[in-house]
Amino acid sequence: MNFTFLHAADLHLDSPLLGLASKSADYAERVDRASRDAFEKLIELAIEEGCSFIVLAGDIFDGDLRNFETGLFFVNQMRRLEEEGIQAFLILGNHDAENRFAAKLSMSANVHLFASKAAEAIAIEALKVSVHGRSYPQRDVTENIARDYPPAVAGHFNIGVLHTACQGSESYHAPYAPCSVEQLVNHGYDYWALGHVHARSVLNEHPHIVYPGNLQGRSPRETGAKGATIVTVSNGEVAHLEHHDLDVVRWFVVTVDVADTEDRSALLDQIRAAIDDACTDAGDRALAIRLRLVGETNQHQQLLIEQQILREDIAVLLATLAQDIWLEKIVIATTAPPLPSSLDPTVSGQLAAEIIAESADFINELIEERIAEVRAKMPAAAHADAFFEMLREDAPKRARILALSLVNETEAGDAAN
Description:
Blueprint: E1 3-8, H1 25-32, H2 34-48, E2 53-57, H3 68-83, E3 87-91, H4 94-98, E4 111-113, E5 120-124, E6 129-133, E7 157-163, H5 181-185, E8 191-195, E9 201-204, E10 208-211, E11 227-234, E12 237-245, E13 249-257, H6 264-282, E14 286-296, H7 300-305, H8 307-319, E15 325-335, H9 347-357, H10 360-377, H11 385-416
Parallel strand pairs: 1-2, 2-3, 3-4, 6-7, 7-8, 8-10, 13-14, 14-15
Antiparallel strand pairs: 1-11, 5-6, 9-10, 11-12
């Protein structure tokens, strides 16, 4: 029996793209719809490819979602599949388990939602396929639930659907439902449809163990192409895997070495060239860019102090490009050339030189100490990783800017007296 199916995970429908929607009214509407538009493209792909069924491996919704319209949107997309004779197999992941609507939606007859009490198998006899899965009963699933999945059904193509932080995957995600590649290989299934890790990866072949990655990048930690995997099965074996890019807004971290630039004009030319490369990679999609400036440059102090002016200059530059681009953040990670103390013997000059040369490790160590103090006072269930990440990114830069500003103010006050 030959057939194709679509494997996707981590849709996070209507989850915001961090740092974007609140910053630009013009960009907000497209950003707000990004996850829905990407999912509509997924449904169209399944129909165009003639898929017999789709598999969604968890985190269809987002934990803090409170809009029932998101659920209705999903139900309507499932009905589109039903009209085409395409079945859908779903499990709920950690974010779905937090959502009060996810398990209460009235689904069409083509949708098979796996229970959370125990793993179960659902057969498609016409295709000789058995799909095995289990939804999360609550957000924090720390036990190895894969070991309780049913044995493979003889004579069937067996698919395991699992939301997991599998050992061997690269992930900053919580270690939910941990398991190993060796364990999954030895379970006897032909394909493991995994979710939870947002980066696409194939952990094993024959049997195939696959993370399709998430459908739409949501932050600078989720850069590059995002989408779903089409699996072609021939004579009971995986014959072909093909990843399809379905993201609507693509994230990039663009790093520009400005060591050789002598003035603002040359710096902007270098930034434009780097962003042009990102535009080529993105195709016709909108771009969300975090710009990192690195390298030793005599513009270092000016870049730190005049960040708003730099942002305005870059905004003018971006307006000359054809694509829809949003600059999420500028990270100034440059360093100043060594400054001999004899060049500026004043007290303020000496202080400024020391501030610029201050070790990043020293500042970062202070930040980590403060984060540890805050964590110790937070409730156990609190989620603040995004805030702490922002703090680690911004605090060293802001500390230097504040210190330099205080030096400049003191110098100006002395001159006035």
